[in-house]
Design brief:
Helix content is 63%, strand content 0%. The two termini are 24 Å apart. It is globular. With 195 residues, it is an all-alpha fold.
Length: 195
């Protein structure tokens, strides 16, 4: 059975070594700190919320744009060598768990990546080499989330180790409290702590 990382590499066309080349340089320092990432995320979400495709905009319909921008730039800052802003405010990134409510399909990943490429191209503070490294990371991570979403769908009816013979309502409450074993003990390495 392929790991989520292997599926992400296969589907994205980005090898893990290229995806995690962002770890070879402190991009937070190289790119001038926080404001570059705020600009990138603002540029990105302006594009997302103005997308021509209603199906794509609807994915973000229940999210506040300002909060989405903050979540993204804080995660990027933390992942790319800056202070742990995201974890200080929200806890562990747990990308698959945090994206569970959203339909993370191949089509949605490609559309997300389209907007991210445009946002990167429109952020003048990011040099060409850093853009390539960042886009490889984003592409691999987007398909890591697709793989996690497909695993979630496959395991929807498969009971985890916490399942009991108790009524279904009791089992569902227990699984929600534990966020189920699928995400926590899925046996994969995550793109946010690969180093």
């Amino acid at each position: 059975m392929q790991s989520l990382q292997q599926k992400a590499s296969e589907w994205s066309g980005v090898e893990q070594s290229d995806a995690f080349a962002i770890d070879s340089t402190n991009l937070f320092d190289k790119l001038g700190g926080l404001q570059t990432f705020v600009n990138l995320s603002t540029n990105f979400y302006n594009r997302v919320y103005d997308d021509d495709e209603e199906w794509f905009r609807s994915i973000f319909a229940n999210s506040k744009k300002e909060e989405a921008i903050q979540n993204q730039y804080e995660f990027f800052v933390q992942r790319m060598g800056g202070p742990p802003l995201y974890s200080q405010r929200k806890g562990h990134p747990a990308l698959i768990g945090r994206h569970r409510p959203f339909p993370v399909s191949h089509q949605a990943a490609e559309r997300w990546l389209h907007h991210m490429q445009q946002a990167l191209d429109g952020t003048s503070d990011i040099d060409a080499d850093s853009k390539i490294k960042m886009m490889n990371f984003f592409r691999h991570t987007a398909f890591f989330l697709v793989a996690g979403d497909e695993l979630k769908k496959q395991n929807k009816e498969v009971p985890c180790k916490h399942s009991t013979s108790k009524p279904a309502a009791v089992r569902r409450r227990r699984l929600r409290r534990r966020r189920c074993c699928i995400v926590r003990a899925g046996g994969y390495s995550s793109p946010w702590n690969s180093a």
